[in-house]
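Structure catalogue
Derive tokens from sequence
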Amino acid sequence: MINQSLQQKLLQKLSPQQIQLMKLLQVPTIALEQRIKEELEINPALEEGREEESMEFEADADNNFDEERNEDNSRDDFDLSDYISDDEEPSYKTYQNNSSQDDEHKSMPISMGKSFHELLSDQLGLQNLNDEQKVIGEYLIGNLDDSGYIRRELDAIVDDLAFYQNITTSEIELENVLKVIQSFDPPGVGCRDLRECLLIQIKRKSQSDPDIVMAKYILEDCFEEFSKKHYDKILKKFSIDEDELKDALDQILKLNPKPGNSMKESSKSEQVIVPDFYLNNEDGALQVILNGRNAPELKVSKDYIDMLKEYSAKKNKSENKEAVLFVKQKLDSAKWFIDAIKQRQNTLLVTMEAIVLYQKEYFLTGDDTKLKPMILKDIADIIGLDISTVSRVANSKYIQTDFGTFLIKSFFSESMENDAGEEVSTREIKKILQDCIDAEDKRKPLTDERLAEVLLEKGYPIARRTVAKYREQLNIPVGRMRKEL
């Protein structure tokens, strides 16, 4: 038997305007212009430029529309004054345009080069191979990863060729074609592991150089000892001194362990960081400036306001109702977007000003040891916003200071107590850890245990496992892998 019951639930739901604001908060300055362009394309009621509606037009529109609205109560209630500005000033201003009409505007053409695999295919076409070998070569090239390695076993590729290409071949034939590919540029492509990659490259160098010859011997006979930096075993095996070993290792370190990436990076333009904020320091007075160069002025379309007024003036015509609702929807969307942009700018500025005030000593000096422990909740409590809002502001945003450009979220860190019972930032500890490693004797690098002892001597009681965690976060290898001759 089915029982019916009534239940009451209290739910929190974000309005479409709040969702739009949350999404805009996540967008960094460099991507804001594209986001605004997308909105301009999908909403014809949104336009670039200054709002130029006069007070006389506004009053006349309000009076006429109020009369029509009172005469037809069946229509949806809305106020035309919501879409007309109260003054002649722009609804918001996010940038200053210092260019003139006489300025010459130039655009940089983008050169589209060939991909890594296409360049290898071009080289394959120049080889003296039969049709079947070329098909095998193309298949092998297609199996290379972005680093230029072929990760699959040759016997598996033999099965693939039989199944997909209807080609019956052998591992020996594959080896022969693979050797042809390994002769291509960049040196090292088509290898199956790091050792083979480095050997291919070192064999292309002049074999009359004793350092190169020794480097080849090390890769052939002592690759495991080289990778683990057991230099004493290599010295003993080849009966050489440290200077000879160092010269040979220098030749190996010049080689490219990922030859595929070399061609990929050469065709890739450098990523430019556009700061979202600028920090000015004038005699100890810190001022945060929001970068608004990618946010043009926006306004609600006057044509759509006139259109709404015209449709609303026509009485007792049901066919106009859909048109009125459509125009009203577009006007509402435009107005919401403008408000969301304005609120985004205000939220960004308020949040960044709170961060600068909280970390004032650091922003005055640029000294990492002056950074105080700070979490998202600290800033959220100051500005009276939710933690998630602060997180969206800090994510993917940068601030430019006199001592560099930094990711905002890097200023947030947990706290630890030193031996004096004072709370210090974990970033301060990482800075001291980095300095210790930079100053160590590379012939005898410090172990994690020794680093923990050094930090304890400086007043930071930290366990060895915590040192290891911070070292990994700094992308620093273990002591054995930092060893140099």
